[in-house]
Amino acid sequence: MGMVTVITSGKGGTGKSTVTAGLGAALVRRGNRVLTIDCDAGMRGIDLMLGVSGELVFDIADIVSGNCPPASAIYPCKTVPELYVLPAPQNVHDEVSPYIMRQLVKVLEKYYDHILIDCPAGIGMGFESAAAAAKQAVLVTNAEPLSLRGCDKVRQKLGMMNIHEIRLIINRFDERKFRRFDALPDLDAVIDKAGARLLGIVPDDNVAAAAAQRGEPIEGKWKAVYAFDRIAARLDGTDVPLEY
């Protein structure tokens, strides 16, 4: 049975989908078979980041409506073997219910080592659907007050859904900007405000971000790739020291 993790955030723009794609590729490099599920109905992006957008015929709504079997809506990432994508519906009105998501993931988790569910920002219906089948959560934030503001509400909502294993990724971190803005005294203050145990810090890496936007794998000797590899190791249960 695969480990099911929802990737969430208190607000949009934290780079949550890039984290999902980068972490998925890093888990594959560790020998895992990984499925990413895009639950951001109407705003899907994981298919683009993993280079399968031109191949899409079916999405998760087609599975639910009976238009296709689950396998027909799951697309392999050609540049990263063993990494797969289940796209979100194009129409927000086709959003999958929490009950259906639980039933679907229960079937799919037999075939993967990890399932990463990319959650829409905030705590609306899309959040509830994305988190419904998760066993743990990764909360993505930037090191700034506006990004941290919604973390408390997300944690509370996850707790109400009996998801208590919540880890934190600080994404797009630039130490010089952080110190120049002087909005928070240090990274410990960021972690305290987020209220979750730190899983890792992903540095601001324009090369990696540009690759994701072009649908290229987040691989190579980049700062973000190094960070994702260490985060993937921790998610797999390997004791890797934190760096910050």
Describe this structure as you would to a colleague.
It is a single chain. The protein is an alpha/beta fold and 244 residues long. The chain contains eleven helices and eight strands. The protein has helices spanning 16-29, 46-49, 60-65, 98-108, 125-131, 145-148, 151-160, 175-181, 187-194, 206-213, 223-235; strands at residues 3-8, 34-38, 75-76, 83-86, 114-118, 136-141, 166-173, 197-203. An eight-stranded mixed β-sheet has the order 3-4-2-5-1-6-7-8, sandwiched between helices. A hairpin with a 6-residue loop joins strand 3 and strand 4 (83-86). Helix 1 (16-29) packs across helix 11. The longest helix has 14 residues, at 16-29. It is globular and about 55 Å long. The two termini are 33 Å apart. The mean pLDDT is 91.
Please write out the topology.
Layout: E1 3-8, H1 16-29, E2 34-38, H2 46-49, H3 60-65, E3 75-76, E4 83-86, H4 98-108, E5 114-118, H5 125-131, E6 136-141, H6 145-148, H7 151-160, E7 166-173, H8 175-181, H9 187-194, E8 197-203, H10 206-213, H11 223-235
Parallel strand pairs: 1-5, 1-6, 2-4, 2-5, 6-7, 7-8
Antiparallel strand pairs: 3-4
Q: Which structural traits does this protein have?
A:
single chain, globular, alpha/beta, 244 residues, 11 helices, 18% strand, eight-stranded mixed sheet
Coarse shape: globular
Strand order of the largest sheet: 3-4-2-5-1-6-7-8
Strand coverage percent: 15-25%
**What kind of oligomer do you see?**
single chain
Which structural category fits the helices and strands?
alpha/beta
Largest sheet: 8 strands, mixed
Our Rg estimate from Cα atoms comes to 17 Å
Strand segment count: 8
SSE sequence, one letter per element: EHEHHEEHEHEHHEHHEHH
Q: Mean pLDDT, rounded to whole units?
A: 91
- Enumerate the spans where pLDDT stays under 50 for 5 or more consecutive residues: none
How far apart the termini lie comes to: 33 Å
Helix content: 25-40%
Total count of helical runs of at least 4 residues: 11
